[in-house]
Amino acid sequence: MTLKELREQYLKHKQDDFKGISLEQQCKMYHKIKDLLTQQIVRPNCCLAAQHYPSIVFRLNDYYDTENSDGHWHITLIEPSWDFVFGKDYSGWSDEKPDVKFCPYCGKPLPKMVRTKPGPDQKICKITDGGYYCDTCGERCDNCICDLAESVFVPEENLND
Ligand SMILES: [Zn+2]
Ligand SMILES: [Zn+2]
User: Fold this and answer.
1) Based on the structure, what is the number of domains in the chain?
2) pTM for the full model?
């Protein structure tokens, strides 16, 4: 089942207050949707390591306007204790970190990412409050099952195909 189908089914059940399905079925569906959404987290596709050990992900610059914001390659998986060691917010979402330019695994330059129009199958998360609620579904961002706001970005080189 595609993410779109699964999401539609889930939202239908939700409208119905999940009557007719067990809590276990409800959780299973929800987690499957969240799993599929995790796959939408934009990683460089230069090598398998960058896909499997996502130390670099593409994030928006502005979570007060996710429909128009540009984005940047962001370092993740920074050792949390470094915050303590260096007395700085290294592991958090602070966007003051320098831009990442190369894949740390294979050394290829990271692609320039460009915004595309969402496809008919996509239902895009829209955030305008910095990261608390999704305007598209009205849920808290943690519970939102819309497509990730970043999922409309593709490497520029893919557009020339
Ligand atoms: Zn790579
Ligand atoms: Zn949403």
Assistant:
1) 2
2) 0.83
